[in-house]
Amino acid sequence: MEQMTLHKAKLSSFLETLLDNYRVVAPQRIGPSDIVFDEFASGRAIPFDYVNAHLPPKSLFFPRRECLFAIEGSKHPKLLAPPAEKPTAIFGLRSCDATALLFLSRFFGERGFEDEMVISRIRNSLRMTLSCHTPGPDCFCVCCDGGPFLKTGFDIQFTDLGEILLAEVDTEKGAAAVKKASTLFSPAAAEDIAAKARQVEKVDQMFQLRSFMADGIKRISLGSIPLLIWESWAGDCQGCGGCCYLCPTCSCFTVQDAWRSCDTYSRERTWDACLYEGFTREASGHNPRAAKSERLKRRFFHKMSYQYMEIMGRHGCVGCGRCVAACLGGLDISNLLSRIHDECK
Amino acid sequence: MSFQVTTCPYCSCGCGLLLNVEGNRLIGTHPSRDHPISNGSLCIRGWNCVDAPYDRERLTSAMVRKKGVLVPVSWQEAITEITTRLKTRNIPERVSTPGDEDDPSILFAVGPVLANEDLLAVKRLAQFLGAHACGADLSGVPVARHAIRKVLGNGYLSRTLDFLADADLVWILAADLENFPQVASRLAQASRKGAKFVQLDVYTSSALGGNTTAVSIPPHAFGVLPHLLQTAALELDKISPRVKETPGFSTSSLSLSSGKAPFLPDHSWLSDDRVKALASALLAARSPAVVIGERWLSISDGVRRTSELLQALALLGVEDRVVVAAGEAGSWGTCDVLQEEKRDAPSPLLELLNSESARKVSVLFVIGDDLIRRFPRSDALIEKLSRVDTVVVIDRFQSDILQFAHVVLPSCAFGELDGTLTNAFGTVQRWRKAVPPRGESCPERVWITRIGRHLGLENWPVTPSQWLEALQAEIPSYGSAGLGDLYAADAPFGIPVEETGRLSFTEAGVPAPISVSEGFPMQLLFAAHPAHWSTGALSQREELLKREVIDSRLFVSPADMKKTGLKPGETARVVTPTSEGFLSLREDPRLPEGVLIAVPLAGSQASTLRGFYPDPAGQTLGIQPVSARLEKV
What is d(CA B618, CA B358) in angstroms, rounded to the nearest whole number? Predict the structure, then answer.
């Protein structure tokens, strides 16, 4: 793995070199904790002292709402394909989210079928991670093999060393990007690599939240949590769907036809949530998971069971902690695993 | 791609959220982590609020009824049609002295979804026409606001929600917490820290966990509770000096104390010892809190009963630790701008809902609301609407009220307009425009301005900040709050309205006992169907949802099921002294014996089993229990 350094002051110049080939996206500060991934424009300040964007970057690859195709005209209808897109180069991706993109990549493209729209966006993207130097109070990636530093799953991994960024290049795509801006980069010194090693050790000790993963995975996989317990937990669930929307590995969607103008209709894909009562409701009105407890149980089976690990190659949580902040009922993954540990005998 | 910070358009909590815009289209939303209410979370409504502008039933062009059918016309033609109809009512003569003459036959009914600026526009035009303007929400926030002003002298109770999360004892009065997820969330946090709950309601819920004590209040006895609490508070004699020093405070004026109590209806459901124990626990709590729900506010003579409740809570020292879980995004602003609590007479909208009222409404503006859906059981309303000369509807979506409309004007949906909203905690927040309006849609204030100009009323504000300035000039507490910063580049999420007030006590009045009709031993209540706030409509499954709503249901306790030999899913005959109907049965273990809850009635049943009707006291819509019996078909 090639190791280079980039002065922080030159980051914008580096991102500008990518604009020809990519839609470049970088974190933008809206408020003290409100960070979003937004299109990079020359001269825009890029924050480094953020925990993470609350809306996961999966929205760049698997948008909240997207047009799959449109039909125009009623007498001689024309099929309109969505416009061609530039590939996305994302800077500031946290390790947990980069890991989640690998998970989505498997879901959308490596299980015997390919969702062309999503998978091509992920495959064509340039993923530039920024390792965490200060985990947030809700973060627990360290328990989930999701970070805070990665060994693979990125094109370039940046580590904030103060004035400079250590850049570790893992792919040809990453190497090409660095080569194009080679005058901005310098070879990393042994001191820089040692500084990163010290940071890895330090950050590992900074996590405030730990998670009882092993116990939870075992009990969920074996189905040994009584339904009564699921029912009592489900009482806390407000059914907002926020955990699903904010989860960087969740991929539930629904497809609907939308009216755009007098003679144009589009078929659109939007995010959906397995915790919504309507998610599994069938056209007949029958709902195999009508009870909230059944939906909650199913969600965690998808996230945490061995059965799904076999299919997806890993469990479905990368420890980003977004659900910890988003859940109105304290049923985020970390908390629920604690409840399993504390309440199940 | 861009992001815009704004305020959720649904309930009165006013969560902060970020809109995600792609091109000219709202793509999604997510909660603000910095906002003090949302704090990184949203409920299902907030998460899906961006779907509204693209709803299939969205109105996008002006329409005028011609030969019995609403047909699209230019907005100029629609405005001309409205003003022509108004001018036949001798408006020009009154223009010279606007506001001097009261014309109660013109009524503006506004829904609780309007920005403060749009409400101000309505108020101005109504004043110019000498007309009445009132909020369509009659039983929630207006009742709370009346009572709060009466007892506390200011406009709001608690200014935050966070104290709920740290509470160790919470009383919950007739609140449906699923409609206020941020309140429920704070209570869930408190529960996890070991808080205890006392649920005072017609039925009990286990949603708050094992630490809940339930006090089951008979449906007709809600009004008795404040008196029991006042009496207990006075007898415990732990009233703080702060309260005792309140001007007007006198134990003798609280007429139920010291043996002076006149007849108090039977309260075997809450013995004197138990109410004292509850009051003692509240007094002893480290961090007490009280949540008052919409169903409490909807009880008969709601303003009086809620005032008495607040008075009782003041005696127990917790009147500043009360949250009212009620209202929609524009409810509190409607009270502020239309100053509904200053109106001495009952809401003029009640005249439309009361079949015995003789007042004739000739011109009705229905703005941002579907009165038919809001008051689904009111035959009087439907009958009177069909006789109104001119009905003008300004709304975002097609709705049942359109069948009576002569002119329809399309208004902006969420995300398409700038403006301010006032949440339940007295904070004025921004709505920000993120995408252009669809079709000919305009903010309500623009339509009102056009109508006003056509009638000769000038000097309307134009820009959002000019409207805000006008609002500040109109409402003193908004003027002193310095709301101008809301349009600054680094604007805060919201600016709290600072109002000061002082406690005042009024003499207690005892609710009249409700007589139970012979042969009708049960109490039939009516509940709103919560489905339109749950997943169906918002995740684009509205067709299924509509099918569900039509299915009227009757919830019955297991004991009554057993007693009557009825089974869930069966249809039963519900007989009241004046009517009868057939409803599909559902068993609800939360219900006490003898209480039936119907949700919602539709079709032919709407005209028979009526439970919502104008309160005889004239203050609000009362959700009165109706004596009933259940029969096997």
Answer: 15
pLDDT at A269 over 80: yes
SS3 B573: strand
**Cross-chain Cβ contact B33/A33 below 8 Å:** yes
Residue A37 belongs to what H/E stretch? strand A35-39
Is residue A317 within 8 Å of A212, Cβ to Cβ?
no
Whole-number Å distance between alpha carbons of B146 and B120: 20
A238·B44 Cβ contact <8 A: yes
Rounded to whole angstroms, how far apart are CA atoms B9 and B329? Answer: 5
Question: What CA–CA distance (Å, rounded) separates B174 from B171?
Answer: 10
Which member of A34, A59, A276 has the closest CB to residue B32? A34
Q: What is the DSSP letter of A10?
A: G
B4 by DSSP, 3-state: which?
strand
Q: How confident is the model at residue B91 (pLDDT cuts 50, 70, 90)?
A: low
- Are A61 and A101 in contact, with CB atoms under 8 Å apart? yes
Kindly calculate the radius of gyration of chain B based on its CA atoms and give it in whole angstroms: 25
Give per-residue burial for B297-334: e unless 16+ CB within 10 Å, then b: bbbbbbbbbbbbbbbbbbbbbbbebbbbbbbbbbbbbb
**Per the omega criterion (within 30 degrees of 0), is the bond before A82 cis?**
no
> How far apart (Å, rounded) are the C-alpha atoms in residues B108 and B126?
7
Residue B25: list chain A partners with CB under 8 A: 65
Reduced to 3 states (helix: H, G, I; strand: E, B; else coil), residue B567 is coil
CA angle B305, B338, B109 (to 5 degrees): 90
Q: Could you tell me the two tokens for B317?
A: 């020292």
Max Cα distance, chain A (Å) = 70
Rg over CA atoms, chain A: 22
**Cβ contacts (< 8 Å) between A270 and chain B: which residues?**
540
**CA B23/CA B108 separation, integer angstroms:** 36
For residue A185, the cross-strand partners are A6
Task: List the one residue out of B600, B629, B593 whose CA is nearest residue B203.
Answer: B593
Question: Nearest Cβ partner of A36 from B3, B40, B44?
Answer: B3
A267 contacts: CB under 8 Å, gap ≥ 6: A67, A68, A69, A70, A255, A256, A257, A258
Task: Report the candidate in B417, B340, B369, B381 with the shortest Cα–Cα distance to residue B155.
Answer: B340
Q: Which residue, B29, B19, B35, B25, is CA-closest to B425?
A: B35
CB B64 within 8 A of CB B406: yes
**Are B18 and A246 in contact (CB < 8 Å)?**
no
Which residues contact residue B633 at a Cβ distance below 8 angstroms, ignoring those fewer than 6 apart? Answer: B570, B571, B572, B573, B582
Least CB–CB distance from A242: residue in B2, B34, B47? B47
User: In the prediction, which pLDDT does A256 show?
Assistant: 82
What gap in Å lies between CA B351 and CA B488, rounded to an integer?
43
Kindly report the backbone phi and psi dihedral angles of residue B192, in degrees, each rounded to the nearest multiple of 5, phi listed first. Answer: -65, -25
- Which ipTM did the prediction report? 0.94
Q: What would the pLDDT profile of B258-312 be if each residue is shown by its tens digit?
A: 444 445 667 888 888 999 999 999 999 999 999 998 888 887 778 888 998 999 9
The Cα of A68 is separated from the nearest Cα of chain B by a number of Å equal to 14
Instruction: Please state the φ and ψ torsions of residue A70, each to the nearest 5 degrees.
Output: -135, 155
B-chain CB neighbours of A36 within 8 Å are: 3, 18
The minimum CA-CA distance between A33 and chain B, rounded to whole Å, is 6
Q: Which of A65, A235, A279 lies closest to B28 in CB terms? A: A65
